[in-house]
Recover the amino acids of this structure.
């Protein structure tokens, strides 16, 4: 990497923080909504708070190389804690706050954290629940004092008390802290993030200062991010994306990170802040679009007609205007009017009025959803990345945005396709190692630094854009040797608002079948409009009319799959609608809501058998885990339906 | 139990309970010929969670209404913070530092959650009608201060997402929580809860229990509550008064009450042959 003289000194997050405090001292760095108003901290206040926490950590005896676990929702003080830990030479390890105590125990044990910093009493309770198995934990710090008075505080402190203690001790430990900050190098670990693990136990991905800072710099320059940009930090702190956006890029460019009041006020807070740079997984955009459509169904006639009329215009010319392609003057005028009457107010309601750059990633996004937002004039783009790459592998440059690709290699990233179709990359963001797991490190990253993504894909002729088909290991063969790409089919089905989740089976079988989860919001609303009464998810899911609707969707997808001769074998012959939503608490999804095929196949083996033995109905009992960790069971009799498939010639003759 | 240290006592979980806050002396209440309460005496101490339980029709709600000053008993005396209390208007009761929630939710359905809670601070507002209407001078500063207090309560009860939602649109469990918020907004010395868990599901009950304990812990508020759910009462309260047919049949810690034969009879019935 080229390094200028000033860049050379900026080789750690604490160094960047010091630069920002000097350069933009009076500008807002972090905001959090609390007590109904946005509280904000400038860069110099932030630097002061972070230093106080770091001094407090030193008085408590935080050592170089220690791991500091951080559990809670996005709050400025938790971000500061991460930087404070780095100042002390320790490594922050953010954890998923909705993880149950068991999952948490594994990670806490694996990283050997001595200090745990949590948001509130709920998280303290979870840590205490497993603490007897984790002798390493020496100190728990919490943010929210509520309900904490009666706890044994011999090994516990409010974070505010730690920073007060640190401030008081600045003369005693200040020099030591300065020494430790000066020791930080480009190759010092910056953060350790546990991958959610579609299979097996989570792995601790160690990312160095170099990984984070160079990646942040490159990606910030790619999208011309500025210190005046605003982001909303609402995605889990344990996810690499949040670390890059809310720490890496925020520190590099000096933009403002806004933390919502709590998880359920996110949409209101989004509107109030109006971020200029925004990331959301496809399901957030899907959810919002579904909401808009539901509300438009209930709107007055005039509004509905206006919406329909101008959305037609937007879909026709909006993306072209956004990409700067030639559009006739009349269409431009129509689009202007639409912006005045419909798009502007709608974007304002959604909180997207000011977005310059928006990204989505993690799962495929439905072309219709994607186009809807682009038609409104929102510069929504796709990127492809993973924790091991410090997020960025490929991303779409402005003006070259399509729903079916994930863009061109990000600056500084090399990408190649392996012989089996697997995507490999090498970049300055490539992770250092999996913590305490040299075997996995070696099998993922080769000696030359190439990392296997585990995804199968190919570069499109002409454009140089990467297209991802599926997880490499999920792409299989059916009994008769035809290609089986479950995710390809699942995504096509999930693009229907009524369908939330799909699991397709068929590897090594003679036909494909599917489990389907309906989307309660969309189908519930449809039921209301059609006077269908239901009392629970289970009842709605089993309704004959719902089955008919889903069958239509399945058959429509079958027809579109049949067009591609290579994948026509993936048409769905039989399906059932599951009686419960797939849930991360039951281990069926990862915390980032990816389907865990093996676990589902194991758990619902009776249902899969029924799909392949030609039964019409199957009785089943399923164990479920409630949010508080208790277990219960659901009993149901599920209907199995056959879906029409487009047969190829030989079969047509036989039938 | 009646031979208690006048300075207070320490509970099993280590909370310090203070001296007597309210004392009921030989209360009797009649509606015409119906004796709702007959000669009941007990006290409520500072910082305590005090429950009144009993079967249906035992006179619990009447007792709560006597405590709140809504009913004036024909016989007996009510002493509050060292003074004997005479007949009072509701606003006088509120100014004394007593707030309550109702068995049948009594909120303003058309108003937002925030406004509903703000009404709880009405007795604490000092600026005049004119300056409030004009949003002028002291009124502006005062409203800001009150709003800050209310926001702290909203934060405390975790109802931020519904701050601006009209109460009429909320589900039952949340309405109950808003009612508690409004009562808390008055910064009461004594908080009266009339069946706070009635009609709630298990999860809502657990939440409400936690909030009641937290209110007591965080603000040091003395709480008197009526409740049907025995499990809740026994877990929550420091001392319990048991009523049956308008009479007191037991008074003491949950354990003492649980082993009291009169209480067992009243709840489980007694064979008459």
């Amino acid at each position: 990497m080229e390094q200028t003289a000033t860049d050379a000194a900026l080789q750690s997050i604490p160094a960047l923080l010091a630069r920002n405090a000097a350069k933009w001292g009076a500008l807002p760095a972090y905001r959090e909504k609390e007590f109904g108003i946005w509280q904000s901290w400038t860069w110099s206040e932030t630097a002061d708070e972070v230093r106080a926490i770091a001094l407090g950590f030193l008085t408590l005896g935080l050592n170089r190389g220690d791991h500091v676990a951080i559990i809670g929702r996005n709050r400025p003080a938790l971000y500061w804690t991460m930087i404070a830990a780095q100042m002390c030479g320790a490594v922050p390890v953010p954890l998923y706050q909705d993880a149950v105590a068991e999952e948490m125990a594994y990670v806490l044990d694996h990283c050997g954290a001595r200090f745990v910093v949590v948001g509130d009493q709920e998280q303290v309770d979870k840590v205490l629940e497993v603490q007897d198995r984790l002798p390493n934990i020496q100190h728990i710090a919490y943010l929210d004092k509520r309900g904490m008075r009666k706890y044994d505080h011999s090994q516990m402190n409010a974070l505010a008390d730690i920073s007060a203690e640190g401030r008081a001790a600045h003369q005693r430990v200040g020099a030591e802290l300065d020494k430790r900050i000066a020791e930080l190098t480009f190759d010092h670990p910056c953060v350790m993030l546990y991958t959610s693990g579609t299979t097996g136990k989570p792995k601790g991905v160690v990312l160095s200062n170099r990984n984070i800072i160079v990646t942040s710099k490159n990606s910030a320059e790619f999208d011309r991010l500025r210190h005046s940009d605003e982001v909303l930090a609402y995605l889990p702190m344990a996810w690499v994306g949040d670390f890059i956006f809310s720490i890496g890029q925020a520190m590099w460019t000096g933009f403002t990170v806004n933390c919502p009041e709590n998880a359920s006020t996110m949409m209101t807070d989004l509107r109030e802040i109006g971020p200029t740079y925004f990331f959301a997984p496809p399901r957030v955009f899907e959810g919002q679009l579904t909401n808009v459509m539901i509300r438009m169904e209930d709107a007055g006639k005039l509004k509905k007609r206006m919406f329909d009329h101008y959305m037609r215009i937007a879909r026709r010319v909006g993306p072209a205007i956004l990409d700067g392609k030639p559009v006739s003057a009349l269409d431009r005028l129509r689009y202007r009017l639409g912006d005045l009457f419909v798009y502007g107010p709608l974007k304002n309601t959604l909180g997207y009025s000011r977005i310059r750059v928006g990204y989505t990633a993690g799962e495929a996004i439905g072309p219709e959803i994607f186009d809807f937002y682009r038609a409104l004039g929102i510069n929504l783009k796709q990127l492809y990345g993973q924790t091991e790459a410090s997020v960025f592998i490929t991303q779409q440059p402005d003006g070259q945005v399509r729903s079916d690709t994930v863009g061109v290699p990000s600056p500084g990233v090399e990408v190649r396709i392996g012989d089996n179709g697997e995507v490999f990359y090498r970049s300055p963001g490539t992770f250092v190692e999996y913590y305490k797991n040299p075997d996995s490190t070696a099998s993922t990253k080769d000696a030359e630094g190439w990392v296997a993504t585990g995804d199968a894909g190919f570069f499109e002729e002409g454009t140089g854009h990467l297209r991802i088909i599926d997880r490499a290991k999920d792409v299989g063969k059916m009994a008769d040797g035809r290609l089986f790409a479950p995710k390809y089919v699942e995504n096509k089905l999930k693009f229907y608002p009524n369908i939330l989740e799909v699991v397709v089976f068929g590897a090594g079988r003679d036909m494909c079948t599917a489990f389907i989860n309906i989307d309660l919001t969309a189908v519930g609303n449809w039921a209301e409009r059609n006077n269908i009464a239901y009392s629970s998810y289970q009842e709605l899911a089993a309704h004959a009319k719902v089955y008919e609707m889903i069958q239509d969707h399945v058959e429509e997808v079958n027809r579109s799959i049949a067009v591609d001769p290579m994948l026509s074998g993936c048409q769905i012959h039989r399906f059932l609608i599951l009686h419960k939503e797939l849930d991360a608490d039951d281990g069926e999804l990862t915390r980032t809501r990816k389907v865990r095929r093996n676990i589902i196949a194991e758990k619902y083996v009776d249902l899969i058998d029924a799909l392949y033995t030609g039964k019409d109905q199957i009785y089943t009992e399923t164990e479920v885990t409630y949010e508080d960790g208790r277990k219960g069971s659901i009993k149901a009799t599920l209907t199995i339906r056959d879906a029409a498939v487009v047969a190829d010639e030989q079969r047509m003759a036989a039938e | 139990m009646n031979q208690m240290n006048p300075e207070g006592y320490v509970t099993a979980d280590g909370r310090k309970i203070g001296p007597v806050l309210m004392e009921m002396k030989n209360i009797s209440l009649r509606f015409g010929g119906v004796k709702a309460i007959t000669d009941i005496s007990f006290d409520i101490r500072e910082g305590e969670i005090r429950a009144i339980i009993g079967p249906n029709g035992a006179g619990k709600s009447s007792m709560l209404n006597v405590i709140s000053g809504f009913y004036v008993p024909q016989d007996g005396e009510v002493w509050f913070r060292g003074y004997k209390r005479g007949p009072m208007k509701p606003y006088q009761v509120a100014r004394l530092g007593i707030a309550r929630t109702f068995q049948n939710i009594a909120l303003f359905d058309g108003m937002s959650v925030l406004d509903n809670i703000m009404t709880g601070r009405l007795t604490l507002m000092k600026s005049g009608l004119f300056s409030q209407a004009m949003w002028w001078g002291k009124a502006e500063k005062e409203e800001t201060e009150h709003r800050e207090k209310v926001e702290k309560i909203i934060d405390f009860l975790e109802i931020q997402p519904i701050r601006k939602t009209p109460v009429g649109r909320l589900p039952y469990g949340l309405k109950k929580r808003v009612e508690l918020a409004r009562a808390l907004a008055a910064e009461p010395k004594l908080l009266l809860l009339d069946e706070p868990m009635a009609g709630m599901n298990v999860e809502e009950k657990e939440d409400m229990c936690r909030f009641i304990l937290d209110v007591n812990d965080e603000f040091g508020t003395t709480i008197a509550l009526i409740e049907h759910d025995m499990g809740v009462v026994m877990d929550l309260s420091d001392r319990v008064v048991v009523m049956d047919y308008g009479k007191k049949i037991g008074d003491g810690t949950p354990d003492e009450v649980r082993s009291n034969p009169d209480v067992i009879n009243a709840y489980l019935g007694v064979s008459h042959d």
